[in-house]
Amino acid sequence: MSEMTHHPLLFTLRDAVSGKGFLAGITLSGRALMVQEDGKWWTYGVRPGAIAESGSTPQESFARFRNRYKEVLFDIADESRTFAAFKREVERFAKEVDKEEERSWNDALQLVRASSGPPPEPFSQLDRMKAEEAPPKVTVEKLSAAKRKFTPKDNLKDTVAKAA
Fold first, then answer.
1. Contacts of 147 (CB under 8 A, 6+ apart)
2. How far apart are CA 136 and CA 47, in angstroms?
3. Is residue 51, in this structure, part of any structural domain at all?
4. If you count Cβ atoms within 10 Å of the first and of the last residue's Cβ in the chain, which end, N or C, has fewer?
């Protein structure tokens, strides 16, 4: 596994985004492929497939990917006149698939499954999760204190796992 250069990742991100007259809660479970190329680490979005970012370490690459995703949400909020329009566009964006990266992600997943050893550093520090147990999905809900009591249990940490 030490020769492995493509690392399939599963992630869950949760954000609160302010729009024109609304506050939205977005939870995205997605897939990304992390690759070391040209002396940099790249995180390529698979689902959603419209984002790619790089960094000098895997952690920096994913942090930049995460921030770029958040910028996309902010842009969608800025362009949406209503919550319904925002929800529709976020759902459309989240379903975008980069077919080439998806093929590479699936190939990398097969290599992970065929390997008997642990993943290389720093990926060995990530939890491993079966891809079938974490399908890509997005939920977009309108947050309103009048309709719902918010509690700390509503908080969700960002997660990143090595697909297994």
1. none
2. 7
3. yes
4. N
Question: Which residue segment(s) compose the domain that 62 sits in?
Answer: 6-163
Q: Please check whether residue 154 lies inside any domain of the structure.
A: yes
Is residue 1 included in any domain, yes or no? no
3-state secondary structure of 123: helix
Amino acid at 142: K
Neighbour-count burial of 110, counting CB atoms closer than 10 A to its CB (0-12 exposed, 13-18 middle, 19+ buried): exposed
The pLDDT of residue 61 is 97
Query: Which of 61-98 are b and which e, b meaning 16 or more Cβ less than 10 Å from the residue's Cβ?
Result: bbebbbeebeebbeebbeebeebeebbebbeebbeeeb
Is 91 within the bounds of a domain? yes
Count of domains observed in the chain: 1
Q: What is the DSSP string of 64-107?
A: HHHHHHHHHHHHHHHH-SSHHHHHHHHHHHHH---HHHHHHHHH
